[in-house]
Each structure stands twice: as structure tokens, then as C-alpha cells.
Give the backbone structure.
Amino acid sequence: MTVHTEIKAGPDLSRLRRFVADLADVVDQGDDEAAILKAGEVLLTRLIATDDWLPDDYARPNPERYQQYLLHCDSRERFSVVSFVWGPGQATPIHDHTVWGLVGVLRGAERVESYRRTTTGFELTREPDVLHAGEVDAVSPTVGDIHRVSNGCDGVSVSIHVYGANIGAVRRATYAPDGTPKPFISGYANSTLPNLWDRSR
Ligand SMILES: [Fe+2]
């Protein structure tokens, strides 16, 4: 008797594979942050224009807190791609990144409050934005690096973030409302990654 093991096929990851290959081409050109953000925004906008590729395991909310799933890390840790999953009402503390980053909403909406530090705490650098599916925002020490992000819709929200480092391993900070920094290394919620490299299907 032959026993066939059924392996769940999952979604087609070729969009994500193409994105990481194209982003590697961009960072191969050099470390000009403005150029990377400009080219990266075009690539991320294209990636999030179609919501048919993110496997369910990397879009799963947790009732306790927002989730940060690593989807891919460049072999030289020049960039990482992460899915953030927000249940209703979930939010980050105020935090920084220390490297360039792009935030693109795939599903739902994300509310972004951008801050600068003052002697007594923080002030908003612009009116809070609500990014909807298909929209992209940028952060970096040059363009503004401190923000607080929260779910901007009633259901589950999913966004795809790209950073100029292995972001889960970067030493950075969260901040109390009075501006007191607290060191923080985010890590990731997942221990396995989507398989971008099986080209047999
Ligand atoms: Fe952030």
C-alpha cells in the first residue's frame, strides 16, 4: 500500500521572493539612504498591492499583544522583511529604529503618530496618519525615527515592514511619555520562516 503524505501547498510566495531579490539589487547599489527609501517604496508598494501571498501562519493575531513575524532576512543582515499583525486596539509603545524602515499596510489600517524628543518628553512632528491598505510610510534617523503605531481599524490589521538591518536583533529603545528611554531588542514571534526557495511548484 502506498501512503501519500499530503503537504499543504500554501500560497504562492513568488511575489515575496521577487521583492527580496529586487531589494537586494537596490542595496547592492550602495548605502545612500534616500535612494534606498525611494526605490524600496516602489517595490513595497508593488508587493502590498495584491493580498494573496502572505501565509496564514504569518498573519495570525495574538490576543495578548501585536505580533512581529520575520519573513526574510538578507544573508548579510543588510535588510529584513517582517509582517506585523495587530488585533483590535493593539499598539506599540513609543519607539525608535536606528535604521531606515518602510511600513506598508497589506490588510486593514495602521495609525502612526510621529514624534520628536523635547526637553520634557515628546511632541508630534505631524498630525497622526492613518495608513490604509496599499499605503507606505518611511522612518529613519534622517526622516524621523520615533513613532507609535496602533491598529487603525476594527478588525485585524496586517502590515509589511522592511528595515535596513536584522531589526529583531537591533539594540534600540522604547520611551516613556516623559522621554525616558528603555533599551529594547524586539526579537520575533516566529521560529520558522516561509519557504521562498521551493521552485518546484
Ligand atoms: Fe516602528
